[in-house]
Amino acid sequence: MLIEGDSIIIPKIMDVVHISGDLMNLEGNAISAPYFGARRASYYVNNFAGGFSKENKKSNTIVVYPNGIAKKSINFGLFTLSPKVKKGATIKIVNKVEVAKHKKIPLDWNKAIESTMLKMTAVLTLWLLFDKVAPQQ
Fold first, then answer.
1. Which residues contact 57 (CB under 8 A, 6 or more apart)?
2. 49 in a domain, yes or no?
3. What are the phi and psi torsion angles at 126 (to 5°)?
4. pTM summary value
5. What CATH number does the domain containing 59 carry?
6. Domain tally, the chain
């Protein structure tokens, strides 16, 4: 509901595309590029941000449109299809999640033998109980 004296402000859509994340160029972690029609996000990353680095994951590239909707790249296994970019969109490049390598823990033989003996004792106890309780024919 509008009252007299209220004003409606409609922001202009800028004719640029913003690219953020860990980029190959050394100018920082964000860059703006001119809008070149309905191109895909990978076009802007390759031509204006220096391409994807080894730490970036192409399938985790996200395009956030000016209206707030976000689309993620689709991974088809052999190739990745990034979403199309519109005026004023922001392309976010996400790094690969580092999987922690499992440290080899030495086996504690005392605990292993103790655990095995406890389980065997429990199974034998149940077997003896069922053998005594079950009616014999």
1. 94, 95, 96
2. yes
3. -60, -40
4. 0.59
5. 3.10.560
6. 1
